[in-house]
Write a structure and sequence with these properties.
CATH class of the largest domain: Alpha Beta
Order of helices and strands: HEHHEEHEHEHEHEEHEHEHEHEHEHEEEE
CATH architecture of the largest domain: 3-Layer(aba) Sandwich
Largest sheet: 8 strands, mixed
Shape: elongated
Structural class: alpha/beta
Strand order of the largest sheet: 10-9-11-12-13-15-17-16
Distance between the termini: 56 Å
Number of domains: 3
CATH topology of the largest domain: Rossmann fold
Length: 381
């Protein structure tokens, strides 16, 4: 044996690396019993038992009955473990990070209707932006015999590892963790950001700001990168002091973080927000500060939630077809279930800017294609 270990954790890491290298076979295959591990690595039965416990805690193996099975990746239905599982219950799991959000609630409602149409039951659970809860939810879907999982993944450093090792077929909605090979249904965020920049410029603004999520790096936020690129291409700047970050689980921080900036405004400024709920908080703050929207401050959100249309100043926002997003995701997931082939498709939903009160500063915005009081700005590139 070329690799060495000097402690219990060292032995666990050694065995885990050997599992992932394929020494013990593909996910779903039988894994040696505790006594066999003790003999293979020349350790006591007590130590071998501790090793097995830690491997189970890491999601590398699973105990079914009195036998252990490999669960370090997608488990085929034709594998020994796959044959033991009841995968014919026609259940799909749906993990979201915050079920109280209008955005996630809309996804769940749309997905539930389409899943029922296909003969599946949809089981939904919310992790409330907690990584350990997300792990527990994914394990719960596995334990109840779900055939596959739709997921809006959390924003954590180890989210990629979580899904790389997950045993059930799954499709990402809205965001795909870096380095994970799997199907996803995403909004064309970069193009949307560029179009927001174009709309702001054509509306007459010359100063700009962005409010994003502190959990996302700038490189990991295509809405920001598209917005920044769109401004730069037209000769405009987005200074560092005009970039703000709020917590994904507490948009009420928007007022505290941006208040000083808004107090000091000297020129009309257009602000692009990562999410409609952030934009609404910003809109309320402008009212408190007696700033006139859209003359002093222009605001654009993202996701076209119901609240965007019902505020006193209806919110300009980026929207897209929720039904197309969920139906595409379920179709990709059921295809994985039926074919047992891991996905790798990134399907992009093309968005549109809905121009409303918060940026209708002058007559320069596009006026064609009126739907109700909304104006569809065809600026997506």
């Amino acid at each position: 044996m070329t690799k060495q270990y000097t402690s219990l954790n060292g032995l666990v890491e050694l065995i885990e690396s050997e599992i992932k290298e394929g020494k013990f076979g593909l996910p779903g295959r039988r894994f040696p019993q505790t006594r066999e591990i003790g003999e293979m690595y020349n350790v006591s039965l007590v130590t071998a038992h501790k090793v097995m416990v830690k491997l189970r805690e890491r999601g590398i193996i699973e105990l079914v009955g009195k036998k252990y099975y490999l669960t370090h990746g997608r488990v085929s239905k034709s594998s020994p473990l796959g044959k033991l599982k009841d995968n014919d219950k026609k259940i799909l799991g749906f993990h979201v990070t915050n079920i109280d959000s209008q955005y996630f609630a809309s996804l769940v409602h749309s997905a539930g209707k389409y899943a029922n149409k296909l003969g599946y039951r949809l089981v939904t659970a919310s992790s409330d932006y907690k990584h350990q809860e997300e792990i527990a939810i994914l394990n719960m879907f596995r334990d109840i015999g779900a055939s596959g999982v739709l997921t809006c993944p959390g924003i954590y450093d180890n989210t990629s590892e979580l899904y790389s090792n997950y045993v059930l077929p799954h499709v990402f909605i809205g965001r795909k963790p870096d380095g994970v090979n799997g199907d996803s249904v995403l909004v064309n965020n970069h193009a949307a950001g560029k179009s927001v920049a174009k709309h702001f410029i054509e509306t007459g603004y010359k100063e700009f700001a962005y409010v994003g999520l502190k959990e996302l790096s700038r490189k990991g936020d295509p809405r920001y990168s598209g917005f920044y690129e769109g401004l730069k291409q037209e000769g405009y700047d987005l200074p560092t002091e005009n970039k703000f970050d709020v917590s994904a689980d507490d948009f009420t921080n928007t007022s505290r973080i941006t208040s000083s900036f808004l107090h000091k405004l000297k020129e009309p400024t257009a602000i692009f927000c990562f999410h409609d709920l952030i934009a609404v908080e910003l809109l309320n703050l402008c009212k408190q500060l007696k700033l006139i929207v859209p003359d002093d401050v222009g605001i654009c959100g993202f996701d076209n939630l119901y609240i965007a249309r019902t505020t006193t100043n209806a919110l300009t926002t980026v929207g897209y077809r929720i039904n197309e997003m969920t139906q595409t995701a379920i179709n990709l997931l059921t295809n994985q279930i039926e074919t047992e082939q891991e996905g790798g498709v990134n399907y992009y939903i093309e968005p549109t800017i809905f121009v409303r009160d918060t940026t209708q500063r002058n007559a320069n915005y596009k006026k064609e294609n009126m739907i109700s009081h909304d104006m569809l700005y065809k600026g997506i590139v």
